[in-house]
């Protein structure tokens, strides 16, 4: 059973999402919160598999709530999915850097919403190649830090290659085709890289690839 925490300051939004989730046999909404502080407390109490968190809320917003969840070892199993009205804006970008596994626009169709919850619960990032490319394009306009290369020496050459391809927006299947390996082996390379670089998920792995200089943004 996938345990879900809903955190949104709009009761109508929460009730709409809950109505969808309650229809599924494999998903259970364990708690609801109206702000980030309440959401953090409920996350500690219920240890959900997925926390759906609105990005803009009073008291503590979704970015700070995500940052606190990511920093708490007791909440390592909680996968944060950011909810937004605005698509990939600067707030979403900051949330991904803070540790979110991905994001959803609130007008997502029900089928995609339910699929996203299941993907997040498995520990996979909600970053389709098209979204990854938007994330990459955002990096083109930002200076790269100079102190984030630590950990690269821990990667094997094949793991580095897989990380570079992931950062270029390729899916595991596309990485497998490019590297002439099985999709399972591609996923293994990505997972081992995440472990070595202490990345919570694929989103943070992509962020690391650019911030470390492993991949250079292309101005095209």
TrEMBL record:
Residues 3-121 form the Response regulatory domain. Keywords: DNA-binding, Phosphoprotein, Transcription, Transcription regulation. The keyword tRNA processing does not apply. The modification 4-aspartylphosphate is found at residue 54. InterPro entries: CheY-like_superfamily (IPR011006), NreC/VraR/RcsB-like_REC (IPR058245), Sig_transdc_resp-reg_C-effctor (IPR016032), Sig_transdc_resp-reg_receiver (IPR001789), Tscrpt_reg_LuxR_C (IPR000792), WalR-like (IPR039420). It holds the Pfam family GerE. Gene3D superfamilies: 3.40.50.2300. Residues 148-213 form the HTH luxR-type domain. PANTHER family: TRANSCRIPTIONAL REGULATORY PROTEIN NARL-RELATED, TWO-COMPONENT RESPONSE REGULATOR. This is Response regulator transcription factor. The lineage of its organism: Bacteria, Bacillati, Actinomycetota, Actinomycetes, Kitasatosporales.
